Amino acid sequence: MLYLVRHGRPRIEPGLLPSAWELDPAGFDDVWALRESGRLPARARWFTSPEAKAIATAQLLTDADVAIVDGLREQVRDTGEWIDDFDETVRRAFAEPDLPAYDGWEPLAATRARVVAVARSLLDEHPGEDLVLVGHGTAWTVLAAELTGTPPDLERWRTMAFPDVIPVA
């Protein structure tokens, strides 16, 4: 089974690239609650995005070794500019995945290709084992859709908690 874990609540710092945001200590209790919830496997192989908020989330969720995998990073968003209608911008990314939805954003099709390739490789390397990938909402939305053969669930993306988990059979 594959478990896609969205990182805990980030400390949002306008002007700083989202990829550099840290985990907000005020949200640690939410991460610990997920750890104790029984929604994650007792034994698994753990992998995380290289972003600080994802690494910190993984470290709070498990005592196991966690491998950092560059390809699990979120959609590249090379702008620290505050986006007033972030939800609409992400919806545009899903509607036109081959185009950047905002100046400095990676096209969502590139994000999908990257995370799907990494996830399939990890699944092939660890057949029959539970895997936990700690990362990001947009990346996990496109990955879950690809692996299940369903359209991206934008409502689930919109309502996903910090942290949250999407089990994928």
CATH superfamily: Phosphoglycerate mutase-like
Q: What's the tally of helices?
A: 6
Indicate the CATH topology. Answer: Rossmann fold
Instruction: Bin the helical content.
Output: 25-40%
SSE sequence, one letter per element: EHEHEHHEHHE
Give keywords.
Rossmann fold; His_Pase_superF_clade-1; Histidine phosphatase family protein; alpha/beta; single chain; five-stranded mixed sheet; 6 helices; 5 strands; about 170 residues
Short synopsis of the structure:
The protein is an alpha/beta fold. It is 38% helix and 13% strand.
Task: Describe the protein.
The chain is an alpha/beta fold and 169 residues long. It has a single domain, classed as Rossmann fold, CATH 3.40.50. The chain is built from six helices and five strands, in the order βαβαβααβααβ. Strands 3-2-4-1-5 form a five-stranded mixed sheet. β2, α2 and β3 form a beta-alpha-beta unit. It is globular, with a radius of gyration of 15 Å. It starts with a strand and ends with a strand. The mean pLDDT is 97. It comes from Nocardioides aquiterrae. This is Histidine phosphatase family protein. Pfam families: His_Phos_1.
What is the element layout, followed by pairings?
Layout: E1 2-6, H1 28-36, E2 45-48, H2 52-61, E3 66-68, H3 86-95, H4 108-125, E4 131-135, H5 137-148, H6 154-159, E5 164-168
Helix pairs in contact: 4-5
